[in-house]
């Protein structure tokens, strides 16, 4: 009884620590927190009628699962990028090819680029990769829907990171501004790397993972009941996709490939969730059949025992 009494506050505290940890990994500021709070408006329209005491143990685990991946993703990605630079011999090198395709550089979005707009679009891009995913995850946590949380997780980091490495280890393609010898539009507000650091970070462009993450979350968000949430995520995710072109980072074909990749990952996540649901229902059905057999055999045993005591056999 004492353990149960302590488990609830510890679980609430652990959940709070994870939620704080999500904001701390990339040093989210007030703008990111405010965006999440706006996305939480109308969450009751999608919330399940489940007591928090029953939901929280499973909700905490569903939140912790992708957070662990996210917390160590930065270091992991640095190792991968460094290893690629030293060891990987890409099958395809597309810098010259992509640079030769008219309008593939997204220059149609470079017409008007005042500093205030560039800083805002830079904010959208810099935090968009993680903020789009975690906004959906945190909101689904407050809908008290573990299945939905797992669905978002699979459509996001869990499937996208390992699958996209197949492309990044095969195709060598660098960012638009680097190939064209233009200034980095994220410098100095969001990044200021050395030449060697840039060599690591300007590769891995095909497909655009900013686009794939944003588009996957957009597709998933469109399934929610809250109109406000659909509009919020639809607008934000669209801005993330456009920011990759505005900031001269991704090529148009990168973006299109990222959208196709995201669509495929969402469909794969759908299939995985259907399989998990089927396995869960099969398990419950098997358990019910076992219980029915056990209860069905009990009266028969009682009758047999009764006749045995009387020295007679059942008719």
UniProtKB/TrEMBL annotation:
It comes from the Bacteria. The keyword Transmembrane helix applies. The chain crosses the membrane at residues 28-43, 55-73, 120-142, 154-178, 198-221, 228-249, 255-280. Keywords: Membrane, Transmembrane, Transmembrane helix. SUPFAM superfamilies: Acid phosphatase/Vanadium-dependent haloperoxidase. Residues 191-269 form the Phosphatidic acid phosphatase type 2/haloperoxidase domain. This is Phosphatidic acid phosphatase type 2/haloperoxidase domain-containing protein. It comes from Tumebacillus flagellatus.
